[in-house]
Amino acid sequence: MPMVFGVVACAWGSHLDAQSFAPNWRSERAWGVASAPLASPFRTTALAASMSEDSMDDAKCPYEPWPGFGTGLRDGFERLPRPVDSPLYFEDPFINTDLRPLVLYHEFPKDSLLGGGDLTVLAVQARLALTDRLQFIATSDGHSDLESSALPEGEGWNDLAAGLKFALYVEKETKTILSAGARWKLSNGSRAVFQGIEDEISLFLSGARSFGKVNVIGHAGGRITTHHNQGNDSLSWDVHVNYELTRYFHPIVEYHGFYYLSNGNRLQVRDGLLDYGNLGAGDVAGSSAHWGSVGARWEMKPGVSLGCVYSFALRRESNNDIFKRRVMTNLVIAW
User: Domain residues for 44?
Assistant: First the structure.
């Protein structure tokens, strides 16, 4: 949560600077022009030369540390709908500043490690455009409430995760963008909700393209644990497709896949934690899980949109790790 407040402060400070500093800077210059001839006629030539140089700098933004700080990449990319499900790892390629409060409700299969039950996650993600190509991301935080038939009920704080994302390729005409990034996930959360188990590094590549009223976003990523014998390395991939039914309403279809690359030695079980955590399960290498999502995103006002999807298993629940079904909602508040 401190990372979220820091991002808000940076974005809001940049916004205030844009509105307050620039007019004062220009008014001081204008006052100097009006008073200079009264002060000394010999300063007129020097002042004119100075003003000529200053006028060439008018296009420069005196309050931006870097081009695009706080605002990121615009040119229509800011209006493209964002993904909804698998929020911790399905990173979109866009560069902007936003906050994303989210609520996730997840149900476990009865024959899984957890013996049925459910999980509720409340969190706030934050993203800050450092330039028009570089973005800081804080994608994991918040609180979880776990109810399981096989374990005592638990609640606690989630692990923190943050990283950077860079736009490698941008084509504004077709709204095409390709970005790459990395994040570090700390093991600082509560063991009562299967957090705080293992640090990990995740690398990802994501892209998007607009085809008229159809927008497509794709993502592929890998998770590498810092202690390979205690966690599970894995791959994940996601596809998001939305259609502009109206200017403010986009139906959504998503597909999510997950594949375990390695076993851990913490628990000799055949289920991991998919996109929620890293259990270090001892019998998951080579197994996978697949689920789909259907829903919509509604643009409530410029820069504010609400997304909601229902997610369901795409294979038998007994062979789909801990995934039975899920309902996911997020609110995107963009600057």
Answer: 2-56
Rounded Cα gap, residues 161 and 140, in angstroms? 5
Residue 188 belongs to some domain of the structure: yes
CATH of the domain at 286: 2.40.160.40
| Residue that is written with structure tokens 């039975």 in the block | 324
Per-residue pLDDT reduced to its tens digit, 114-143:
999 999 999 999 999 999 999 999 999 999
**Token pair for residue 7?**
């991002």
Contacts of 277 (CB under 8 A, 6+ apart): 159, 194, 195, 197
Angle at which helix 44-56 crosses helix 2-39, to 10 degrees, equals 150
**Residues 43 and 149 occupy one common structural domain:** no
Residues 164 and 294 in one domain: yes
For residues 159 and 16, membership in a common domain is answered with: no
Cβ(217)–Cβ(208) below 8 Å: yes
> Is 67 part of a structural domain of the chain?
no
46 and 99 assigned to the same domain? no
Give residues with Cβ within 8 angstroms of 318, minimum separation 6: 109, 111
Displacement of CA 320 from its chain's centroid (Å): 26
Q: How many domains does the chain have?
A: 2
Diameter of the chain by CA atoms? 91
The structure's pTM equals: 0.81
What is the spatial distance between Cα 162 and Cα 171, in angstroms, rounded to a whole number? 27
Residue 66 lies in a domain: no
The DSSP result for 165-182, as a single string, is EEEEEEETTTTEEEEEEE
Closest CA to 276 of 82, 108, 92, 98: 108
Would you say residue 71 lies in a domain? no
Please give the structure tokens belonging to residue 97.
């500043």
Residue type, 74: R
Which distant-in-sequence residues (6+ apart) come within 8 Å of 288 by Cβ? 257, 258, 259, 260
Q: Are residues 176 and 29 in the same domain?
A: no
pLDDT average per 10 residues of sequence, the chain (335 residues): 50 45 35 37 41 43 74 90 97 97 97 93 98 97 94 94 98 96 97 94 98 97 90 97 97 98 91 93 95 98 97 92 97 95
Nearest Cα to Cα of residue 276 among 182, 162, 161: 161
